[in-house]
Structures are given as structure tokens and as C-alpha cells.
Design goal:
Two copies of one chain form a homodimer. Chain A is α/β, with parallel strands linked by helices. Chain A folds into two domains: 160 residues, Aspartate Aminotransferase, domain 1; 255 residues, Aspartate Aminotransferase, domain 2 (3-Layer(aba) Sandwich), CATH 3.40.640.10. Chain A is 37% helix and 16% strand. Chain A is built from twelve helices and 16 strands. In chain A, the strands form three sheets. The first copy, chain A, has a seven-stranded mixed beta sheet with strand order 4-10-9-8-7-5-6, sandwiched between helices. In chain A, strands 11, 12, 13, 15 and 16 form a five-stranded antiparallel beta sheet that branches. A four-stranded mixed beta sheet of chain A has the order 1-2-3-14. The radius of gyration of chain A is 21 Å and the shape is globular. The model of chain A has no long low-confidence stretch (mean pLDDT 96). At the A-B interface, α1, α2, α3, β4 and α4 of A face α1, α2, α3, β4 and α4 of B.
């Protein structure tokens, strides 16, 4: 059995000196919650309050949050808080009774998608959404085979963990799962061609084993693989390939959805393809548990004819109130545009830093979803996970929150709240510069 | 393919005349949410407000809720509402940072369980909890085989739907799943013996097919099977059998937990056995999405050594605030005792009705989790699903909410909020009497 720490930026016991209070909380956690939970950072953080882009520890120290995309319109956004506070005192039942708000929300959300996508179903988490999407895809295609990128994360249910290779080598992939290399635009000149060829090879291998292909699932921006956005449109031919093979294309928008890319409401839109199923989660309720699956009606028909779906909390009136408020805030505060302009500003700032710090091998991403690849050698593009870890923890010590990802654990993962200001961006850039200077 | 309506008390289009507003909402639902959703009742209900044991339709008509066990301490309980309102404005992050409240809650919840159970993990739904519990059990035992009762419902993820036979014949059971008859105390004098023999036979059949048994999962009170509480202690020998075979016993307390049985905090406690894993959900946050898995530490160790578990919303500070408030209310309002005394009062009332209405074949259950078996012939104990449907819809027309369950779809399922008063109970009994009079 390999070591358990497949998780980038996981806290590892004994790796750093801890203050007494932190050590005591960690000991309690271990005793009460058991061994499967992970903390982040060499010295884990304890937060007691959040507001906008800031998280506060018990001593009142403020941390600039450039990582959490759940609280995507900012921690405790007053409008979302107010919507939850109002509805929670009125009603929270379930979808076996009629309620108007869930319908109004579905209509509004579906209006942000291509017209081919006509239904919306509600779950509580992105994992549940991907789990349901796979059931729908398998019912429609009659196949089981699943194709994912090799460091993908799609969720934590048993079925979904079987196609979430980033969980590590000790979590078995399903026998019906094939992985393809991530679309590594840093190392390849022909991402579209190579990715398509890999998907075609995976389809062939599934068939060779008597497994009918059911689906290709891709992040709008390939997140845990290393924040690969790739050239716009590169995904189209791989989608054609899976469809030719009788399979579906599921767009996992749990991370790239809700305006994060700054280009469009959904990450898949940059590829000029219309998915068969779209899954969404994390930022949908700005922290309130709500997630969902949008589907082409003809794809959902087979599942609906065979099975019923009921998610006790999915689509209840409070969840829908929170989710509606998130859409309001995205519109009213112009957050799609903010993600684009502030994201571009950060990207340019990072690119300028790359001129002075050779370890910044690649700066990529779209909008406020950015990746910075850390290398020990620019010519060879050699991943430097140790340096990435030092940078992530160095920023943490400067009260700035980011994390890491990628197969080689060497990519900085930066996903600030969509309300990030130019001032916040400059602080992030300045502090990264400072940490990099210390590193060299 | 069989008809899709495996769900007891499902709305069936065209079965009854609907008013215009209801028909319009249903048409919108179908268009927006697609074909997999189900409504309850011949004439579905539309609720806009809830308070205590009451749900209100848009015209202000009050319905007595004797069914919803999610809002277990009453719709919009002021103390739970206040806890959510407070915390939602302070912080809602996740378990990759330290937070004291999740630990305080885990300590408090675990104190309600036998001392052998030492860890608590957080999910959002009971489905996720059962999905995680199975992953833990399979990691610990090295087996895959699952034994469930033949009309069990344990959840909706792909893995869990494979051992939730109540979803209907069109949702395939897993090849590693075996079903045993429910412990039908109405038709058997020897529930313990027969149930144990069936579990032993299922173990043998799994092995005969080369499948190592991993677990037996049972509701504290067998819910969708027909609200079978059985004689206290009857489960013990079946648990012994699965353990002898190297498998674990998972107690599904999603419905029977949190004081519902009136006897103890957890349904399994009536059997004098300590489970290996306990799953919980629906009433845990009184409508706020929160659920969990409690585990013996030695059982969780193998999973924790191999895999990490992260549930984005599971155990966040708002979920924990809601869940803590629920425990406060159960204690402060004496709801365990209320479930016992009011449950007994209802049971006695139903038993009295059974003296006058021959179709009430059996009245069973514990606390505020009651089942009434409807039969066409007492001597033959012949299930009468049509009469059960008429009673459920008759009560709905009298503004009282219950539903149905069981393999033969002939059992009234009654699960009022734990704050049900004697007056509420008398109204339920009186109206059932009225509906039964009309039926005969």
C-alpha cells in the first residue's frame, strides 16, 4: 500500500511545529472525526468568521481568500444571508409537494444554458450531481464505460470515486473506467489532436474489453489535473469521438461554473459544444448545500422512464432561495465581467513575476480560475512539487490562501471569490512576489 | 419494462381531476425538472409555509403534518431557525480548516451512542451517509456482498440504489446484493428465527457465488418494508450471523434516529446490539442538509489508511449549528418522552379503531413511527393496497398528511413531528375514523 497522502497541500503530522491550541484541536479532530479527514497546510488554519474575501482566525487576523470557490460571491454575502434567513423561517419541505420557487429557479438557470438543455434536477453536492449524471448517462446509452482525465476529481460517492483518480492509488478505479492524459497545453503544441487521440484510444480499449462506452466527463477547466484551460474549442473533437461511439459528454461545472471563467456563465461554453449533461455544485448556493444536473430532455427520458429520483434536501425552498440570491448577485454586481478583468489583471501580474522568477514555468487559466506551474528547470519543464509546497505555505504565512494541484503536485491553484477587487489582486501578486524572492 | 410506479402514494397523471392552478404547476414541473420526479397524492399538494406540525397551502388552509420526519422538531422551529440565521452570517467554510463547533457536536452526538462507537463523519444526505458507510465496510472486510430486506430503501446514489429494492424492478440490484424478507411480525410467530435463517441463507448464497459478505444493513425500524419494529432484540442473532461471516452490521437510523421511537435516541438500541456503523440523516438538521456516519474506530481505520474523505458542505458551521439546535430542542422539550407518550396514545387510538374497522389488520411501530396494515380479509391477512390508497387520499382531503409503504403497498406510514401534541393525535385518530367510516 502506498502512502495515503495523494492530496496536494495536505497537512502532514509532524511536518512542522504547531502552536498549542492548533495541536489540541487537531488531536480532538483525530479522536472525534477519525482518520479519513484531511486539513490543509503545514500549519493548519482555524477560522471563526468570514466576510467578503476575508477569513478571520480566533485572534482576529485576516486572511485574504484566493482559494475558496464555494463562497464564490464572498463569505457571508449579505444578500445570500438575507435570502436564507428569510426562507428558513417560512418553509423547507421537499420536491414531493409543489412549490413555485424551485420552478422559477430552474427556468432562470436553464436560460443561462444552450437551448438544447431543458431540464434541471437538484441534489445537495457536486458528488451527488455527478453520481446522478452517470446513472442518467448509463441508462440512456446502455453502456457502462467512463473516460476521465488521469488526475481528475469528480466526487466522493462510491460510484464517482471510481472515476476520481486524484483520490490516489489506494482508491481503486472501476474496471469500466479509462483515464486519458490531461490536456497539457504547457508541454504540448497539439492539445486538441493528442487529447482526441487519447479519447479514441480509450474508447477502443473499453470496447476491446467488452465494455460499451457511456460517457466522457470533463471539467470546464481541468481543475485537479493542473488548471488546464487549453485553447478554446480543443474539446470539440473528443466530444465528437465519444458521441460517435454512442457515449455522452458530461460537462462537470462544479468548479468552472457560475461565471468563474470570466468568459461565460459555464466553462464548457468556450469549447463551442453543447454537453448532454451538465453538473454543478460548489458555488451554486454560496455555501448552502445545493447542487444539480442539467440535461438534454432526450437524454433524461430513459432514466425517467425507469427510475424515480428523490433527494430529500435537494431543491428545497431554502436551497433555492440561496441559489437564486447567488444568481442575483452575479448579475447585479457584474461578477462575470469582474472575473474577466480581475482575472486578466492577476494573470498579467503573474506573467510579469514569471519574468523575474524562473520557477514560474507557466501561468494559465481563465477568469478567476488560475494555475501557475512551478518548475525547477524551464527548458526541461521539470515539475517542482517541493517549491510549490513552499510557496503555498509561504503565502499562508503571509495571510494569503491558495492551494495546489496536478499529477506532479506542482501547480498553484488560485480561485478567489468572484468579488475580488483590483486591490485584493495586487496584494496577492505582491505577496507571491515576496514569497518567491525568499524562495530563491 | 414494468410500469414505473413502484412508489407508494405517487401522483399518477390523469388519475384524478385537478384544479387549474395545480395542473399548471405540474405541467411546469414536468417541463422544467423532467420525468424522474414524483409528487405525492392523487391530487398533489402545494405548500407555501410551515409552522410546528402545520403546513399551509396558498389559500391559507392548514394541513396537520403526520408524515414528515425531516422537520422532526416541527416546521421552522424557532430555535433551529435562530441557530441557522446566526451562523449563516458568521461563517460557512469546510472541514479542511479547523473549527471548534464540529468537534463539540461530534462529541455530543457520540455521547448518545454506545461507547464502542467513537468517530463521526459528516455528509449532506442519508444517501451519502449510506454510500460512505458501505465504502468503509467494504474497505474493512475486504468483501463486497450486501444483504438488505426486500423492500428496503437506503438511498439514491448509484451504489446505494443497487441495494434499495423499493426503488422498483427497473432499478437493478447489484450482482453483489441479496435480499431477505422483511421481519413480518404480523404474519410470523418467529420473526427472529426466520430473519436469522434468511440472513444465513443469503450469506451462503453470496459465498456460493464467490462474493465475500461485507455487511447487513437494517433500518432501526424497517421503514419502507412496512414499518416493522418486530419484537425487541430480534435482530441480534442476524447480526451475530453476519459477523461470524466476517461482515459488519450497519444500522440505518436515517428514519428511526433522533428520538423518533420514543424508547431511545436510536432505533438499534432496542435490539441490544452495538452496530459497527450507524448512518443518520433526515431529521439531523430539521431540514438543513446534514447527515453523518458514526463508526467504531477499528472499523474506520482501514478506510482512513487508504482513502481520504472530503464532503464540501458536510459538517460546515451552519449545518452543525442547525444540528446542535436540534439536539437542544430534543432535550429541552423532552421529545423522547413525548414521542413515547403521544406515540402510545396514537397506537391505542388506532387499536381502538381496529376494533370497529376490520380493514385495520395490524397496528405496529414504536413511538412516533407507526404503521397500520390495511387488509381486505383479517383471517387471510390479505393486503389491500387500493383501500390504503383511498385512506391516504381520504386523510389528505381532510387536511391530514400521512403516506404509505410496504411491498404490497398496503401499509399506512405515520411519522408525525416529535412535537405532536395529544390534541394533534386526537385529530389524527378522529379523522382516520371518519375516513374509515366513509370507506366502509
Amino acid at each position: 500500500m502506498k502512502t495515503q497522502e495523494a492530496m496536494v497541500n495536505a497537512f502532514i503530522e509532524g511536518a512542522a511545529e504547531l502552536d498549542e491550541a492548533t495541536a489540541a484541536l487537531i488531536a480532538q479532530r483525530k479522536a472525534l472525526l477519525g482518520p479519513a479527514y484531511r486539513l490543509m497546510y503545514e500549519r493548519p488554519l482555524h477560522f471563526v468568521r468570514g466576510e467578503g474575501v476575508w477569513l478571520y482566525d480566533p485572534d482576529g487576523n485576516a486572511y485574504l481568500d484566493a482559494y475558496n470557490n464555494v463562497t464564490s460571491v464572498g463569505h457571508c454575502h449579505p444578500k445570500v444571508v438575507e435570502a436564507i434567513r428569510r426562507q428558513v423561517g417560512i418553509l423547507a419541505t421537499n420536491t414531493r409537494y409543489l412549490h413555485g420557487a424551485v420552478l422559477d429557479y430552474a427556468r432562470r438557470l436553464l436560460a443561462t444554458m444552450p437551448s438544447e438543455i431543458g431540464h434541471l434536477m437538484f441534489t445537495c453536492t457536486g458528488s451527488d450531481a455527478n453520481d446522478l449524471a452517470v446513472r442518467i448517462a448509463q441508462a440512456h446509452t446502455g453502456g457502462k464505460g467512463i473516460i476521465v482525465t488521469e488526475t481528475a476529481y469528480h466526487g466522493i460517492t462510491q460510484a464517482v470515486s471510481e472515476f476520481s483518480p486524484s483520490l490516489g492509488e489506494n482508491v481503486d478505479l472501476g474496471v469500466h473506467v479509462r483515464t486519458v492524459p490531461a490536456p497539457d497545453s504547457y508541454r504540448s503544441e497539439n492539445v486538441a489532436e493528442e487529447f482526441t487521440a487519447a479519447v479514441r484510444a480509450a474508447i477502443g480499449d473499453l470496447r476491446r474489453h467488452g465494455i460499451k462506452p457511456a460517457l466522457l466527463i470533463c471539467d470546464g477547466i481541468f481543475a485537479s489535473d493542473g488548471v488546464f484551460d487549453g485553447p478554446a474549442g480543443f474539446l470539440k473533437r473528443a466530444v465528437d469521438a465519444i458521441r460517435e461511439a454512442g457515449g455522452l459528454y458530461i460537462a462537470d461545472e462544479v468548479q468552472s461554473g457560475f461565471a468563474r471563467t470570466g468568459e461565460a456563465m459555464w466553462g464548457f461554453q468556450r469549447h463551442g459544444v453543447v454537453p448532454d449533461l451538465v453538473t454543478m455544485g460548489k458555488p451554486m448556493g454560496n455555501g448552502f448545500p445545493v447542487a444539480g444536473v442539467a440535461a438534454r430532455p432526450e437524454v433524461l427520458a430513459d432514466f425517467g422512464a425507469k427510475a424515480r429520483y428523490f433527494n430529500t434536501f435537494g431543491g428545497n425552498a431554502v436551497a433555492v432561495a440561496a441559489a437564486s440570491a447567488v444568481l442575483d448577485v452575479i448579475e447585479e454586481e457584474g461578477l462575470l465581467e469582474n472575473a474577466r478583468t480581475i482575472g486578466r489583471h492577476i494573470k498579467e501580474g503573474f506573467q510579469a513575476l514569471a519574468g523575474r522568477h524562473a520557477c514560474l514555468g507557466d501561468v494559465r487559466g481563465a477568469g478567476l480560475f488560475l494555475g501557475v506551474e512551478i518548475v525547477s528547470d524551464r527548458a526541461g519543464k521539470t515539475p517542482d512539487a517541493a517549491a510549490a509546497t513552499r510557496i503555498i505555505n509561504g503565502l499562508r504565512d503571509e495571510n494569503v490562501l491558495i492551494s495546489g494541484c496536478a499529477k506532479a503536485a506542482n501547480v498553484l491553484k488560485i480561485r478567489p471569490p468572484l468579488v475580488f477587487t483590483r486591490e485584493n489582486a495586487d496584494e496577492l501578486i505582491t505577496k507571491l512576489d515576496l514569497v518567491l524572492q525568499r524562495l530563491s
